[in-house]
Amino acid sequence: MIETRLLRQFVAVAEELHFHRAAERLHMAQPPLSQAIARLEQRLGFTLFVRHSRGVRLTPAGSHLLGTARTTLQHLELGVQQARRIAQGQAGELRIGSLALAGHPALLDGLKRFRKCWPAVQLSLQQASSAQLARLLLEERLELAVLRDVPELDERLHRHLWREEALLLALPSDHPQAAQASVALADCAEQPFVFTPRALGGRYHQHLLDLCRAAGFEPRIVQEAAQLQTVVGLVACGFGVALVPASAAQANAQPGVCFRPLHDVQAPLPLYLAWRAGDGCLARQQLLELLTG
């Protein structure tokens, strides 16, 4: 292995072709520089310079090594500069996970402002369920996630309550209750329901069950779907009704389904920003400040 210090000393002598001038350029005395070049030649096993009374000249091997040394030092400097920019949150990649992006205009606006402020930071977006997003955070495959279900007892994750949104009832457009401006959840006791699986968000799934039970009934779940877009599509096909966040209604509007507020439910759904504890990613912190400021 050759230290970068020796490479810099070699380049200085090779460019000056004079030990005294090279030593002045490096702000060091000549004898230590001569000794350093001699150690480098000994380590390499071949001669780099031919010494003469007026200075030195490069050997063919020295001329070849000079190009390699310059390229190596240049790449190292560029790498250090890029690493510094990444450490300062001015470059690199910021990986963000979210539930349905289209349903959260505040998130899209934050991403737009972030790209304007830090255009050299590459934003990588991924859509997944809350459970999947939490796992991706813990596996260090995301720096920030927008989700509903954060394990409270997991000290590896920090969370910030970012938004609260209303819960709506999705029902087929030809459903008798579709003509009403709002509906009561208690009136849906006999309706078939479409749910997302518990495994994709246990707290969210349990929250919906608790609301139904508080309204006096156990929901009859006839179909489950991993994505809210599919849930809404199944409602449009007449499989049943579904409880969905307002953001999902905004993002998944389609023919054959309508959304109505629940006038007997006062339990807004929380939406969290989550990230790993101890993660010093400055780019993530800058995005957080834009989203929460």
TrEMBL record:
This is LysR family transcriptional regulator. It holds the Pfam family LysR_substrate. It comes from Pseudomonas fakonensis. Belongs to the LysR transcriptional regulatory family. It comes from the Bacteria. Residues 2-59 form the HTH lysR-type domain. Transmembrane segments: none annotated. Keywords: DNA-binding, Transcription, Transcription regulation.
